[in-house]
Amino acid sequence: MSAKVVVSKRRNVNRQAIFLITLWPFPEDFFLSDPELKSKVPLEYLSHKEKYEEAVRKACLLFRKVIQLQNEGKGGMDNFREVLGGQLGSAILPDGNPITLHYVMFIPTLMGQGTIEQQAEWIQKAWNCDIIGTYAQTELGHGTFIRGLETVAKYDPKTEEFVLHSPTLTAYKWWPGGLGHSANYAVVVAQLYTQGKCHGIHPFVVQLRDEETHEPLPGIKIGEIGCKLGMNSTNNGYLGFDNVRIPRNYMLMKNSQVLPDGTYVKSPSSKLTYGTMIFVRVVLVQDAATYLKKASIIATRYSAIRHQSQIKPDQPEPQILDYVTQQYKLFPNIASCFAFQYAATWLWDTYNNITEELETGQLDNLPELHATACVLKAVSTADAAQGVEMLRLACGGHGYMTASNLPSTYGLVTAMCTYEGENTVLLLQTARFLVKMWQNKTNVYKLPTMKYLATALNRATPFEKSVEWVIAALQKTAAGKIDLANRHLNERVAKGQSYEDAWNNTSIELVSAAEVHGRTIIVEQFYNTVQGYKSRVSKELGTVLEQLLQLYAVNAALRCTGDFLRFTEVLGKDITVLQTWLEELLSQIRPNAVGLVDSFDMRDEILSSALGCYDGNVYERLFNEAQKSPLNAEPVNKSYNLYLKPFIKAQL
Ligand SMILES: CCCCCCCCCCCCCCCCCC(=O)SCCNC(=O)CCNC(=O)[C@H](O)C(C)(C)COP(=O)(O)OP(=O)(O)OC[C@H]1O[C@@H](n2cnc3c(N)ncnc32)[C@H](O)[C@@H]1OP(=O)(O)O
Ligand SMILES: Cc1cc2nc3c(=O)[nH]c(=O)nc-3n(C[C@H](O)[C@H](O)[C@H](O)COP(=O)(O)OP(=O)(O)OC[C@H]3O[C@@H](n4cnc5c(N)ncnc54)[C@H](O)[C@@H]3O)c2cc1C
């Protein structure tokens, strides 16, 4: 394979940003019409081993095709984004892609953490897929608390090498995607020791397997971690080191360095090592939107086909879409798809702007970027996971069928709540930043996502039925919750608790404050986007977008009525108005519901669902899928004669 990648020498180029610029229409058909990218047998009927082998076959073909497009000058890095993301990627590899981490974390870490020379050495090889990498950070004993990682990289100045070692079982790397049997290299995050001192965690490039035979190298203990709730083809692995030596320049040294004599040169910020995690958290908001769109299309189309019960006696069974409770399950999730999509776009732009600043050595906005990426990743993935599950339930029994593709979509989306930072932990990171800003009010005024904190608490928010009011009320609630949590924190400290104990004892309130702050950002971005669109789209489209915005906002408000009653001037009677407003919106959106999900523009092959196809032939498809069960290949299964018959005939 040969893909030309030019490594720019300009320091201020945001190299990770080039991933996500869409320059041309993506040729889905080039992938979806390739018979080799279709599985002959539904994946669920394959063994664990066969699933993995099939996933590797498809993944290689998939990326070969992407590289072919690139070599023909048809699109660039944006093609990688399409095949890695939840839309095309999860259609072709519904149980996960064993090479994803190579593109999503290995290459971005080389780009973000390597010196120009290291990039020149590694990136071309990685882009050409001469080597396949993963990102090995989490260990059996620690995923969240990365300062507590146990893998050691000790510098030996005599040989100018690092010696990597796993001193305990809990030091084994555990979880990295593709680590089991796919990758032959990894970025390994380990505690750096030089001149007898530990300098904390740093990234190292480590070869794991022979480039020809793929046999594990001496001192490398490696394997796959086993079956999971979902993502069973991602080949998550474990990895232990027995005094494995790597050259000095295999430590990624853009931010901190170890000189040949072992002298440690400090990074301008130790948190720059965490850069790849920010990048992935940012792109996950988009992925959360994609998975929720997928489930929303399936459940909404199915709800238009499915007839059940009666609303009035003697009348035909209605489409289940006409039940208001069903609309309540579906439409707020459709609105969330728009909300997360707009938040993702805004966050991506913010990320680009701030990483460009970082490249010039300006770190002022890094804390806000971190806090914002954490909260948006946490809120969007949690809501998407809950939403997909609700949409699955909204399809009744058929939603429980693998053929609906909802169980496997849930398996993919719920993993996002844990990986790349467990959601509660991320909300606590945001809370840490909010409290800091709250305590030091002068900074609050400068930061775009925090500006509201300067005035929100003292601003009057008399109730009115408008999105502007919902935003003001959410802001006031977030400010009120931060203020209260901060007061409780201080009270606990005043009573003699250490700050850390007081923090832990206040953490339920802190998490809740951060969550409302995240929802405030999302509603505000939705509002800003719709205001921007209004003059550019037809009146009819403007009206529908406005309805979706209102639905998202009023639903967000109704989710925190208790907090509104505590922190704003809202009264019980106003909640009734909010409830009626929600019900009005459900009925306004009803005629456009199917059109709205059609607008997400996902082909049947991408939905991969017997319930969600464009033509609505739900029952035929379910029946056809049932015929694919290997049990139906023979009229009588051998277990009848072996077990059932003797059991039935026996005199018990
Ligand atoms: C071609 C590609 C295109 C892409 C296409 C799209 C396709 C998408 C497909 C997606 C598939 C993704 C598959 C990914 C699989 C998952 C991979 C993983 O999980 S990998 C494994 C992922 N693992 C995880 O995510 C582990 C989660 N754990 C952690 O990140 C950390 O342990 C921690 C943040 C919780 C604490 O860290 P700790 O060092 O204990 O820090 P303290 O709490 O003591 O705070 C100290 C100070 O540091 C500050 N600060 C902190 N972080 C940052 C930051 N990033 N920055 C800046 N600052 C930061 C903090 O604010 C505070 O400031 P101050 O108040 O003092 O001023
Ligand atoms: C599908 C999948 C793929 C993954 N891929 C990779 C990969 O490619 N590379 C990689 O390195 N890792 C990977 N991971 C690991 C992932 O990043 C970690 O699982 C994640 O960071 C959470 O860490 P943990 O598992 O240690 O959870 P824990 O931290 O043990 O969480 C358990 C509970 O403890 C709570 N908790 C922990 N710390 C705190 C705290 N400070 N305050 C309050 N509560 C706390 C959490 O909220 C949670 O409820 C993957 C994980 C999954 C599920």
From TrEMBL:
Domain Acyl-coenzyme A oxidase N-terminal stretches: 28-132
Residues of the Acyl-CoA oxidase C-terminal domain: 468-649
Known pathway: Lipid metabolism; peroxisomal fatty acid beta-oxidation
Cofactor: FAD
One GO term (biological process): fatty acid beta-oxidation using acyl-CoA oxidase
Residue sites binding FAD per the record: 138, 177
UniProt-annotated catalytic positions: 420 (proton acceptor)
Statement: the UniProt record of this protein carries the keyword Ion transport: no
Domain Acyl-CoA oxidase C-alpha1: 274-435
A GO molecular-function annotation: acyl-CoA oxidase activity
Subcellular location: Peroxisome
Keyword field: FAD, Fatty acid metabolism, Flavoprotein, Lipid metabolism, Oxidoreductase, Peroxisome
A Gene Ontology term for the protein's cellular component: peroxisome
Pfam families: ACOX, ACOX_C_alpha1, Acyl-CoA_ox_N
UniProt-listed SUPFAM superfamilies: Acyl-CoA dehydrogenase C-terminal domain-like, Acyl-CoA dehydrogenase NM domain-like
Subcellular location, principal: other
Family label: Belongs to the acyl-CoA oxidase family.
Record protein name field: Acyl-coenzyme A oxidase
Organism, scientific name: Acanthoscelides obtectus
